[in-house]
Design a protein that fits this description.
This protein is of the alpha+beta class. The chain folds into two domains: about 240 residues, Aminohydrolase, N-terminal nucleophile (Ntn) domain (Glutamine Phosphoribosylpyrophosphate, subunit 1, domain 1, 4-Layer Sandwich); about 100 residues, no CATH class. It has ten helices and twelve strands. The strands form three sheets. The protein has a five-stranded antiparallel sheet. β3 and β4 form a beta hairpin. α1 crosses α2.
């Protein structure tokens, strides 16, 4: 899940999104510098976007653009949206990446959530909808609630995020609702707040963080007005250092090459990933971490990321251990230090 914010008012509407894309999980994430996640449909004064697997979101955008030329207005598009989205799943099955996506289970295959906002002649105002695979793509009218996925930590989750937490059995965060921004500066402020509180989660050690969401790249704001035309502009950019901060402690190559979240002072790749490498991979591929998502330092992928972040090419020296080898590791894993963060320390 990355950042998508939707606002629909009487005579205008807006969608803000980042440009971080992912396939399968955070291990396969990148920034699309020259692409936008939002597709404008000028024929019906509307725009569409989606969160989830990058390939499925792209199929949705292409099919939505095709159908926009076949309907009379946004109201008719909304009536057909569920059929279009069910067709997205059918079309996606022909793509080379779908077999792996399907093998990862319902949580991944059902990850797509589409958003569409446009001028409704029937209502005489802009309307916004969300349609998620988990609800069989039944459109949910979100016109009267400013929608953000994710919301900044400390704010009240909006409709789609509430359903995600409920489906996963996670507790709902509490706080005041987020108000719709009224200026570009306020949109930028919201994007920065989301990145700071949801993408950059520090001092958590190896604890699983249910609130963490990857956000990154250029941030675009798409605005619709009654009578058109739509405008799209880049309003902010999360740079390479913001990207690194968002993925520190993850299985993304940048995270694996960075410091271990257990605070041993060593690379994640050389510390806990080395400890876990013969266990089943977290991505549920059925293979071991060593043969699946663990980064190979000799691979072209590693070379590419090391060229982007040259300082990661220098291994992080281990801190002097202040605990006995047979004592519990201070990272809190419950394993003896010699089998945990001190693995390979002598080397």
């Amino acid at each position: 899940m990355t950042m998508i914010c939707v606002s629909a008012a009487q005579d205008h509407a807006a969608i803000m999104s980042d440009t971080l894309l992912r396939q399968f999980d955070s291990r396969n994430a990148w920034v699309a510098e020259d692409e936008r996640k939002v597709m404008v449909l000028p024929e019906i004064n509307a725009a569409v976007t989606a969160r989830g697997h990058a390939g499925m979101a792209q199929v949705w955008a292409v099919m939505a653009a095709r159908r926009a030329g076949e309907v009379a207005d946004f109201d008719e598009f909304t009536e057909r949206a569920q059929t279009i989205l069910l067709g997205v799943l059918t079309a996606a099955r022909e793509r080379p990446w779908y077999e792996r996506l399907e093998g990862l289970g319902v949580e991944f295959a059902g990850d797509l959530c589409a958003y569409f906002v446009g001028w409704s002649p029937r209502a005489g105002r802009f309307k916004a909808f969300a349609a998620c695979a988990s609800e069989n793509f039944k459109p949910d009218d979100i016109s009267d609630e400013f929608h953000a996925t994710p919301v900044p930590l400390g704010a009240q989750p909006t409709a789609v995020e509430r359903r995600i937490y409920e489906r996963m059995g996670n507790p709902l965060p509490s706080g005041p609702p987020v108000s719709a921004p009224t200026s570009v500066g306020e949109w930028v402020g919201l994007a920065k707040r989301i990145h700071r509180t949801r993408a950059v989660r520090r001092d958590l050690g190896l604890t699983q963080d249910m609130w963490k969401v990857e956000v990154g790249g250029p941030v675009h704001l798409t605005r619709l007005v009654e009578g058109g035309p739509a405008t799209q502009q880049r309003i902010h950019t999360f740079d390479a250092e913001d990207f690194r901060a968002a993925f520190t402690g993850s299985f993304h190559p940048v995270g694996q090459l960075g410091p271990c979240p257990c605070r041993s002072g060593r690379r994640y790749l050389d510390c806990h990933i080395a400890l876990w490498q013969d266990l089943p991979c977290h991505c549920e591929s059925g293979d071991t971490l060593r043969n699946c998502c663990k980064l190979d330092l000799d691979s072209a992928e590693a070379v590419e990321w090391l060229s982007e972040y040259p300082d990661l090419a220098r291994p992080v020296p281990p801190r002097q251990a202040k605990v006995g080898r047979n004592e519990p590791c201070p990272c809190g894993s419950g394993v003896k230090a010699k089998k945990c963060c001190l693995v390979g320390a002598a080397a």
